[in-house]
Every structure is written in structure tokens, then in C-alpha cells.
Amino acid sequence: MLSPEEHIRYGRQIMLESIGEQGQLALQRATVLIVGMGGLGCPVSLYLASAGVGKLLLCDGDHIEASNLQRQVLYTPADISKNKAEIAADKLAAQNPLIDVEAFDEMYTPALADELLPEVDLVIDCTDSLTTRYLLNASCHKHNIPLVIGAATGFDGQTMLINPPQNSACYQCVFPRNTSGESANNEPQNCQTLGILGPVLAIVAGMQSLTAIKYLTGLSVNTNELALFDGQRQQWQHFTVQPQASCPVCQQ
């Protein structure tokens, strides 16, 4: 049962017929793991904390740098050199003291995945590391946990829900590991090499957050659909994808 304080705080959400008190209670009971507390992780965590997701687990072993401040909206110059997950956890807890927030000052590893995933309802990929992205995909399939992916470089972004319980296509199906996101010399293409516009990250993060809230409250969410954002034209495109019979992750 929601408290009077929660009714006031989340009132504009609760009045939505498709959310209501039961949807708010579902958010309150949920545990979400956010991997990567950079340009996507900051707004995703803010939206989910504000929406009343009961427990947020934040994973990032990186430290805040001055170059992050253009797009990683939780941080200020006073936070430079401090761990991203820990600073974000402090600020989210202050923003919404009605939820639990736990920080993990470490990079995502198979051992950490085995420790955390049994207790979570959803994972959100906010990393800019291809290695971590493939590890997230594999570990979420291992533990049968839905994963919301997101990525952005330059003016462009993408997002997709991977839902192992529904046998959906996985990240490796859509982006085979030997070619995805790599340039001719095998260097990763990310914001460090291509640059990034902050609002593009906010748009992709907003879609990730919306997908998460819809999933957690039992609303319909499209699977087997890759959404691509073109910031130059301010347009979304949606592509149907299918599980690949040869995929070494989801078809074994």
C-alpha cells in the first residue's frame, strides 16, 4: 500500500489509467541494475528514481572528469576525480529518499553479474564499452533477465529491449561481435572518438527509461525491434529484427 507521501509525490503518474496505484506499487517493488553512470546512466537513473523504482543498483568503476560535465548531468566540478556510481547514488538518494540506491565502484564482470542479476528485475545498458555490452547481453541471457540497451555517438542513437523470457533477438543477433561498432582498424566507435551532443543522450535515455517503466508496470513493450534516432533530422526509425539461428548466445 502506498503511503500518503507517496501518493502526493507520484500523483501525476498514478492518475494515468494505465499506471494507477497498482503500477506504482509494481515500480516500488522493482529492482533495476544500471550499468554505466555516464551520459546515458545519469538521466536514466534520474528518471527511474523520480518515478519511484524501489531499488536502483548503480555499477561503474570509472571516475568523473572535467570532460564528462558537458553531458553527464548528475555531476558538478566539485565531483571531479570521485567515483561516478557513488556520487550518483548520493544525489539520487537525496532526490528521492523514498527509494534505495546502492553503488558498486567496479566495472561489470561475470562474477559481479552472477552476484547481482538473481536479485534484479531489469538491467539497463548505459555503457559505452562494446566488451561490457556483449557481456551484459550474455549474462542477462544466462540469468533470463530482460535488458534495455542504449547507445549514442555524434547525433545518432539506438535502443532496444532484449527479453530472454520471450525468446527475443539478442544484441549479438543484431550486432555480430566481429563487426559491430568497430572501425576498419578495430578501434571502437564511441563518444571519445566521434564526439557526442548531450541532448541526443537525453533522448535515448528517455526512451530507455520509458521502456523500463512500461515493462515494470506490465504495459506492452515491443520486442524484436531496434529503434534508431537521427538527431540531424530529429527522426526515429524502427526496424524489425529476428533471432539468428547461428547466434552463440541466445540460440544455444
Contiguous runs where pLDDT drops below 50 for at least 5 residues: 179-187
Output the radius of gyration.
Answer: 18 Å
| Head-to-tail CA distance between termini | 42 Å
Report the principal-axis shape: globular
The CATH topology turns out to be: Rossmann fold
Sketch the major β-sheet. Answer: 8 strands, mixed
Keywords:
single chain, 252 residues, alpha/beta, Rossmann fold, 36% helix, 18% strand
Tell me about this structure.
This is HesA/MoeB/ThiF family protein. Belongs to the HesA/MoeB/ThiF family. InterPro entries: ThiF/MoeB/HesA (IPR045886), ThiF_NAD_FAD-bd (IPR000594), Ubiquitin-activating_enz (IPR035985). GO terms for molecular function: nucleotidyltransferase activity; sulfotransferase activity; thiosulfate-cyanide sulfurtransferase activity; ubiquitin-like modifier activating enzyme activity. The chain is of the alpha/beta class. It has a single domain, classed as NAD(P)-binding Rossmann-like Domain (Rossmann fold, 3-Layer(aba) Sandwich). 36% of the residues lie in helices and 18% in strands. It has ten helices and eight strands. The protein has helices at 4-9, 11-14, 20-29, 41-51, 84-95, 110-116, 130-143, 171-174, 191-194, 198-216; strands spanning 31-35, 55-59, 100-104, 122-125, 147-153, 156-162, 225-230, 235-240. An eight-stranded mixed sheet has the order 3-2-1-4-5-6-7-8, sandwiched between helices. β5 and β6 (156-162) form a beta hairpin. α4 packs parallel to α5 (84-95) and α4 (41-51) runs parallel beside α10 (198-216). The longest helix has 19 residues, at 198-216. It is globular and about 50 Å long. The chain starts with a helix and ends in a 12-residue tail after the last strand. The relative contact order is 0.15.
